[in-house]
Amino acid sequence: MEQMKQKFYSAGECGKAMESVDEETLRELMKYNAEYRKKMGFIFLIKAAGKSPQEMLAALKERVKRTPEEEIHEAVNQEIAISRGRLEKFVQSLSANL
Prior knowledge:
Helix content is 69%, strand content 0%. It has helices spanning 2-6, 15-19, 23-40, 53-63, 68-96. The model has no long low-confidence stretch (mean pLDDT 88).
């Protein structure tokens, strides 16, 4: 199960949520993630910070129903949100050191 969890870690952002994930949810995440990647042709992106594994799974189940053309816009928006969150953390860390 630990190896399966590692697939969903990304820069520590979803690590805390994945520490408490149950095996059934993890298996579903893997199943739908593989389906998503096959259908869309790119990986599932979600701003995981603050989300539980169940919330991420619910989003994945909904988004896999979309067409690749529809989903690319959401993936771009998620990447922007992820990058914005990382930049905000970085700026905060710089401010704390002043």
